[in-house]
């Protein structure tokens, strides 16, 4: 399913007239039709397999098997036929041209919303180098990852990012976390219009929903909604208009689930407006105060419904009056 994200990401970069080459790193499990579509969008599609015994990552994997996905990502440093690259996770949508990132040096990245002294590894500027690649693998073997993934490894390796050089701190607009928007909504209202890259962090991705192209409506579980509706609609509009036709062409008569469906009767999670209707809220299961408290503590507040910024503001206004 991440291949869909990579297709949308590549198409969004092309739509905003990037002058740079596009490279997709994929695992060997990606289907032939998906590989064909990726090859139409990207200049280079490279299969990365850390289980290949000829790869130095294979030896590292034997000592740290829990970091398999991390080793796959680190392969970007082996793209030594390029002098400088910008890495982008597949769950990202580019909103405008970002070629200026190539003026930055390794390792440039934006702060992570969960711990701003760490950078988020969904977007970073780096210089391919087999020497750096080897050192990263060695670091993995010796230290592992403090969060179990690539972000922990990269922050451990580039440990002086937070303090050494402010020019390597990318503005948040280059890696706007979709789930961070609601933790500081006034800032999003002030600066969100300048966003260049939106990152769909969290378990629920855009492709977790379904989309009605005619009605321009997204359907799915309201409880899962942690992404600003405008960005979800942007993702689905691009996917349904540009990517789905290419997939249909490749799959031919073979069935595949595009996620685009015309629904005559459904609960609308997100339409063109930015709020959930009272009718939708009425259909949501009512939680007790204790259950709501538990969800808040787990980071699962109902940002689109009962716990929306507007509803919280109304409650505060009532108390203040």
From TrEMBL:
Pfam families: Glyco_transf_8. GO terms for biological process: glycogen biosynthetic process. Pathway: Glycan biosynthesis; glycogen biosynthesis. It is found in: Cytoplasm. Keywords: Cytoplasm, Glycogen biosynthesis, Glycoprotein, Manganese, Metal-binding, Transferase. Its cofactor is Mn(2+). Its main location: cytoplasm. It catalyses: L-tyrosyl-[glycogenin] + UDP-alpha-D-glucose = alpha-D-glucosyl-L-tyrosyl-[glycogenin] + UDP + H(+); [1,4-alpha-D-glucosyl](n)-L-tyrosyl-[glycogenin] + UDP-alpha-D-glucose = [1,4-alpha-D-glucosyl](n+1)-L-tyrosyl-[glycogenin] + UDP + H(+). Residues 280-299 are annotated as: Disordered. Belongs to the glycosyltransferase 8 family. Glycogenin subfamily. PANTHER family: GLYCOGENIN SUBFAMILY MEMBER. This is glycogenin glucosyltransferase.
